[in-house]
Amino acid sequence: MYSSMSPFSKTTLDINKLYVSSNYPNKIPDEGETASEKQEETPPSKPSSEVSVREESDTDPNQSDEAETETSPTKSPTTPKAVKCKNSSDFSLFSYNNGVVMTSCRELDNNRSALSAASAFAIATAGANEGTPTKEKYRRMSLASAGFPPDQRNGDKEFVIRRAATNRVLNVLRHWVSKHSQDFETNEELKCQVISFLEEVIHDPELLTQERKAAANIIRTLTQEDPGDNQITLEEIIQMAEGVKAEPFENHSALEIAEQLTLLDHLVFKKIPYEEFFGQGWMKFEKNERTPYIMKNTKHFNDISNLIASEILRNEDVNARVSAIEKWVAVADICRCLHNYNAVLEITSSLNRSAIFRLKKTWLKVSKQTKALIDKLQRLVSSEGRFKNLREALKNCDPPCVPYLGMYLTDLAFIEEGTPNYTEDGLVNFSKMRMISHIIREIRQFQQTSYKIEHQAKVTQYLLDQSFVMDEESLYESSLRIEPKLPT
Q: Bias category Low complexity: which stretches (predicted)?
């Protein structure tokens, strides 16, 4: 037996005025119904052990209400006066409101559950967002279960919908800012608009504490300076190298060249925005306008490769050429240790150019150890099996890393050409979009982690010096002059 009464109410419980009913109605009757009407509406059922206990007051109902109003002014006027319990073994749901105990019976049938889906979601959301439930939340939990008017229940549903929508918007913004910060670094207008929107959200008086903290954290992430910004930029390095005479190749060690080449390669690679990887813009006629940073990366690769070949062929003495080849191979091996696979391919592809490969007298004097190392490096970056060995190396290495961009561009072109954008039903082909997203996510992972290499101006000046670099035709002419073709 449970009763709904205020602990401070003047109403007393008289045992003589309790009666037992053998039939239990299928629903909780409304307040306006009389006892006779309730019995008429209830269909006859077989006798059972189910009992219903109802409490009657000695005093006049109006007087009882006035007494309760005086002693408990904060009690809700729509609280049901009669509460039935289906079985003594059933537990009722309790909610407390300023000393008033409000109870409701729990139906055994799941289809007739007192709690609606909306109120259950409200309870779960409130518990997840604000920790310990408050009296206000207990009030909301009881609305659907106590038979309150629809307008009060709809008000709580709107509250739940607003909270769920706010949380979703904040989660999307948090993911956008944390995972794709490049969007805000390159677009100051977008950054200001998002900050303005979040500041407007924070001033919402109905915003919960955790939601306000989440919005403030996003603003802090947008406005704070990135520690990685202390690294020198590519533009600063190029500006320092302009108008300065570079020191010769012999004045730099293989370690210095490898480190500065890795620094340059990564600075060029990290500047590529992910928008340029869509639509195969690098293969179009207007590629310089659509994908300028991919084209800069390609030009940098070719410039370094031409510089290596030119450095080897500028030496008239065969021993000097052998020394240059062995030193560049050592640079390539150090770059491999630094996870700069782009530089490994820059150097090995330069050694395989026809102008260098045909120098038989030079290659005869190259040591066996150097030749074995060249074979090892070439197998690593070989295109056989769709760059099988290089993919395995990238899979097992931790950033920072400079991958070979051409491998990813080949993958993207293969997906774009071989898979349609829409299915046969006219729907977006999300399978294709996921494949493209996976490749771009891997590229972004390597772009976001920078090398902690100190810049050495004298070495980068040499690597960026194009004063002695020859084109393909000049390289081959120089190769023929050094080692003329043998007469047949």
A: 70-82
